[in-house]
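ugh ok so i messed up the first submission bc i forgot one of the chains. this is the corrected input, ALL of the components this time, i swear. 738 residues overall. if the numbers dont match what u have on ur side tell me asap before i send this to the collaborators (the ones from the other lab, u know who)
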Amino acid sequence: MTRQPEASGATGRGDAGVDAARPDGRPTLATVAARAGVSPSTASLAFSGHGPVSDDTKAKVLAAARELDYGGPDPLAQSLRRGRSGIIGALIPARIGVSFRDPVLIQTLDGLAEEISAIGAGLLLMPDLGDGEVSVTSAPVDAVVLVGCNADALGTLEVLRRRNIPMVQIEGDDSAGVVTISVDNRGGSRLLAQHLKDLGHERVAIVALGLDRGRTVGPLTAERESAATVTTTVERLAGARDVYPHIGGWIAGSSRSDAGRAAALTLLDVPPNERPTAILAQSDLLAAGVIAAAEERGLRVPEDLSVVGFDGIRVDGLERSLTTIRQPSQEKGTAAGRAVVEMLAGRTPVAVAFDVTFQPGDTTGPPPA
Amino acid sequence: MTRQPEASGATGRGDAGVDAARPDGRPTLATVAARAGVSPSTASLAFSGHGPVSDDTKAKVLAAARELDYGGPDPLAQSLRRGRSGIIGALIPARIGVSFRDPVLIQTLDGLAEEISAIGAGLLLMPDLGDGEVSVTSAPVDAVVLVGCNADALGTLEVLRRRNIPMVQIEGDDSAGVVTISVDNRGGSRLLAQHLKDLGHERVAIVALGLDRGRTVGPLTAERESAATVTTTVERLAGARDVYPHIGGWIAGSSRSDAGRAAALTLLDVPPNERPTAILAQSDLLAAGVIAAAEERGLRVPEDLSVVGFDGIRVDGLERSLTTIRQPSQEKGTAAGRAVVEMLAGRTPVAVAFDVTFQPGDTTGPPPA
DNA sequence: AATGGAGGTCGAATCGATTCGAGCCGGTGT
DNA sequence: ACACCGGCTCGAATCGATTCGACCTCCATT
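and heres the new structure output, hopefully the right one now
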């Protein structure tokens, strides 16, 4: 490559030739090594600190790197070599603008991100766009966490399994053999229903979250229930049925206050003697909507209508203190993160099911006389 | 999987040895190629569809892949070869749980994600944890978008520059020579101030967003203003000053209704003849808090106090229609996405500055007599 | 003085796929 | 019949870093 005789005493001349510079001119570790007069292996060791390198050599390498304006080892090459990208995929149920309107999801992701940052990993958002295909199906992820998604996106799961990518799900049907992090949805819901029963309510209705990925909206029918695929909704429904076996209601379809408001308006616009005296909303956001609807109809909460939620989040703009179930959203995220870390370390994590706590508020009371 | 002898005439024996299977047993493209009796290059061509491959050969390769349960080309290897990871980093100002409470940020990210999904890229969340270091500094990203972050995280920028990673910022000081996507913060703010002035207001106060990354809270002083680093806040302040040169106020520190409420309580708890008759909140969320505070103090909006916001988002739980400035949050995201795509294609995008529109609501009126 | 050992450095293989140019084969134009 | 051409396949280099074992040097021990 060079026709100069090598003058190598201690250092070969670093400018002996254009060693391994990228087309765009950026240096590589080889360039740096050449300039420092050491082998690429040594340069690598000096950079990563993984091997025994004399202080002298290390200084030389770092100096060369600085002179060449070297930005550090290429993450792409590192990833290939190590077989790890340092990226965890978070499969979310819808596009960002929709998914992130749910505080529970956000808190869960927050906990997850926090936990995996311990191993220096980052979170890649993978919205499930509903067409059976996840937007980023061939992304370089070390593991995937299904947060608020059902594992029924079979195509996706199959790909992950074939690629041998570890998987953890937050809330979901564990039939798929996936490690699951969940809370006691049924028990929590039962507590709320029992609370209403203890107060004396008999005409109680449910405002339900989505039952399927199609986000159907409409009356809660046996047919729809039997076709339900969203475990969370089904479990919470079951908890209510434990107390009120024949409870009916309306499917709001998603956890947003406007959906709750619309559902409640339908439930409340009936003759007063058929009107429910209490509404079990399956999320706090829905409950906020229900309360808004009640106020619009001139009903006082809790005098005319009792309302309970689920989640225990702080709802912006809702002054009331909601009677609800507090679930540890963030802890679910951290637990999922721990599970991922475990799996990446080759161990087998166990499913975690968190307890929930009843959180009394001022939105429930005895039924109107 | 099958012990049947290969019936292939023209092909070499595929089971001649354990060709290139990973330690964990997963097959590689080489394994598949061997099994199909073709060379790795041909197998690659068959998979990607980039070269001329006979239907016959392609079918053989796909069949072999299926038999071996091959999950497709390893993204890590592809990334290295192509020099692209298909991942765009989104630098957000704080941890997820905090950042994502801001609807404007969410909408922007939504637009961004949407736009880059066109080139099959995904979004990696990189929270700026404030310690000068971004959590994922050596992540395999093809480009980085600073969304709601100031480019003053110099250490981070330096790293990106050295790595030759394209960068786009959404709202920010363009001194850094970074492509910037922004809206007319100053003009919008001026419109709002002028609106109040036209209504006859003289005692007007500001509830400001954060001025620095430390999220200082407290009275708006000249000293603090001159040390401000958050361009958005400074620009909106300047717009107000264009109309009310000596306007003062309170720094809420962040865009959340509770921060707005706290700030407003301070501003309103003064003798009635000193009390502002109008408050310019620098975001809709802050405005919602201001309204809540006013109601707590028994002040009617807009009869006793006019309130304006900024952003034009739908605030959950706020029944009122806020007088505000509508900014195209989502479009900012898509514009940033387009800029990223441009840069990755080797072209040079230009800065985009969106116009804003005045959106009258029912929270402003003439000052009390 | 010879042997053992420790500290440092280097070569070469490897991670898994892509891609360019070369080569092979059968068919067509003159 | 000869040369050429187009379609298909293959070999080998490449992307950039990491890592294991070999090797070399110098010092200390017996």
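quick check: The CA atoms of residues 325 and 358 of chain B lie 5 Å apart. that seems consistent at least. Chain B touches chain A through 62 residues (CB under 8 Å).
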